[in-house]
Amino acid sequence: MTAMDVLRMLGDGLVDAFSMFWETLWALFLGFALSGAVQAFVSRARMQRMLGDHRPATLAKATFWGMVSSSCSYAASALAKTLFRRGADFTTSLVFMIASTNLVIELGLVLWLLLGWQFALAELVGGAIMIALIGLIGPRVLGGRTGESARDHLDRFESGGSHEHQHDHGGAAHDEVPLRQRLRSREGWGDAAGYMISDLTMIRKELVIGFVVAGFITVLVPDAVWQSLFATGHGFWSSLENVVVGPFLAIISFVCSVGNVPLAATLWHGGASFGGVVAFVFADLIALPLLVIYRRYFGTRVTLRILALFWATMSAAGLAVEYLFRWVRIPEPEPIHAMTGHGIAWDHTTWLNLAALVLFAVMYGLYRARRRSAGAAGKYAKDPVCGMQVEIANAPAARIRGGETFYFCSDRCARRFDERALPEERNDEMSDHHGMSHDPNGTHRDPVCGMAVSPETAAASAEYDGQTYYFCSTGCRTAFDLKPEAFLAAR
Question: Which PANTHER family does this entry report, sorted A to Z (predicted)?
Fold first, then answer.
């Protein structure tokens, strides 16, 4: 193979990647715009009050709230962890996480465009089957002592020497203003635009990786390779092997959220079964980086149980959908390559994309105006690592550096922020966290996490040794009550 052949193949891979992206551009913008609107206008506090058990009605509510709380896989895991620590049932929290990544608008639209309407329908039907299975099996696998162990490990992770904490004192902002009034307000749509832009920013790497990897795999990997991975010609046993292998490829692919759909299209073209591709799409929540996060949250033993539960139910859902569709005679889409290798053509897709770009420009204008508005101050923050818009009252993690507080969508982003800090910045941060408890401007330092807290807005307070201490959250107050001497000695 000559150098020209290599360059030609690389060029073909990039063209295929761009063609898949262009085919789905309008769907991505529309899906994220609708997702942003729902996140801006639906109260998260209401969600948290409704998920305290794993009854069928509660699981249905968790599924609905997950569907309207579109997230990347990392942010979804952080939000599910937050719900669990605030009292939600463990199984119900996992159902919420699955729905918020696998049953969302943008995923369905991209599946429809790249793979066919059958896969978009399979997403909904298979998602319902998977959630039903988790609702049935989850309490037996993750309930009782296992759930208590997970909660204890999470409490130690959140408060034992860590600056990460939960803000339990917020989340009511949407309840204070009637929905109809918010829908008519420029501020409300500015919030929606902020969610849309930040969500796109948050998964930009996953999207780029997903399309580029899919484009190059299409060109560089022969169909024979996929056919060797996915068994064919053995009826049920081939289907069973495919739905087991699909999640394994998701684990090692490192691509999450919508970014794994282009790779799923490549697998479908390469000969994977219908159920195997469905199982692969569902398995974005067990990619290796997320398993590492689960281990930090809940411990190794609980993480292995989550992995086994997810893998089994994702495979079972893929297999069930494949045979259910055969039974009702829904035809499988042809594994075609129509979306690749063509670049831009002046057809209906191009016009839809141009309309989507206009929508994006309008939403981006609202986003910029909102950032300049003083009314947004103190309500939202931008995760400095991934760019996600974070409600300050519900931020899963926060850091203080140089007198400024930064908020994060997940503990993963907070740790990455810590890793980027220079040694002198870390020293400044430690000084911020363990210095004087009272500042000249009237604010106090939370003795657990070091966050600046105003007595008027503090979530909790405690008296100890004749002095009053103020806390940013009830979680920090609980940690302080358990070992006040340790936190005060570290100041």
Answer: PERMEASE RV2963-RELATED
Instruction: Report helix angle 117-142 to 56-67, nearest 10.
Output: 130
Find the mean pLDDT for residues 258-280: 84
Of the candidates 33, 46, 74, the one whose C-alpha atom is nearest the C-alpha of residue 284 is: 74
pLDDT of residue 65: 81
| Local structure of 238: helix, strand or coil | helix
Q: What pLDDT score was predicted for residue 437? A: 45
Q: What is the pLDDT of residues 106-139, one digit of tens each?
A: 778 888 888 889 999 999 999 999 999 999 999 9
Mean pLDDT, range 392-397, rounded to an integer: 70
Contact status, residue 369 vs residue 397, Cβ threshold 8 Å: no
315-339: average pLDDT: 85
Residue 461 sits at φ, ψ, to 5 deg, of -145, 160
pLDDT, averaged across the chain: 76
- Asked whether the whole model's pTM tops 0.90, one would answer no
Calculate the dihedral angle through the C-alpha atoms of 311, 314, 320, 325, rounding to the nearest 10 degrees.
-140
Mean pLDDT, range 284-299, rounded to an integer: 82
- Per-residue pLDDT tens for 204-236? 776 677 677 767 776 777 767 766 788 878 889
Contact 262, 302 (CB under 8 A): no
Alpha-carbon gap, residue 211 to 189, rounded angstroms: 30
Closest CA to 23 of 378, 454, 373, 347: 347
Task: Dump the DSSP string for 407-461.
Answer: EESSHHHHHHHHHH--HHHHHHHHHHHHS-SB-TTS-EE-TTT--EE-TTT-SEE
Q: Among 317-326, 423-432, 479-488, which stretch is predicted with the lowest mean pLDDT?
A: 423-432
Mean pLDDT over 64-68 rounds to 81
Please give the Cα distance from 259 to 211 (Å, whole number). Answer: 7
Q: Show the beta-strand stretches assigned E in 300-411.
A: 380-382, 389-391, 397-401, 404-408
**Dist CA 79 CA 124 (whole Å):** 22
Closest by CA position to 282, among listed 103, 413, 418, 135 = 103
Give CA torsion, residues 394, 399, 401, 406, to 10 deg.
-30
Assess contact for 19 and 339: CB atoms under 8 A.
Answer: yes
**CB–CB of 322/334 below 8 Å?**
no
Smallest Cα–Cα separation from 301: which of 88, 149, 134?
149
Q: What is the domain partition of the chain in residue ranges?
A: 3-359, 435-491
> Looking at residues 65-75, what average pLDDT do you find?
71
Q: In a 3-state reduction of DSSP, which class is residue 210?
A: helix
Cα 204-41-380 angle, rounded to 5 deg? 60
Q: Answer yes or no: are the C-beta atoms of 247 and 264 closer than 8 Å.
A: no
For the chain, what is the largest distance between any 2 Cα atoms, rounded to a whole number of angstroms? 80
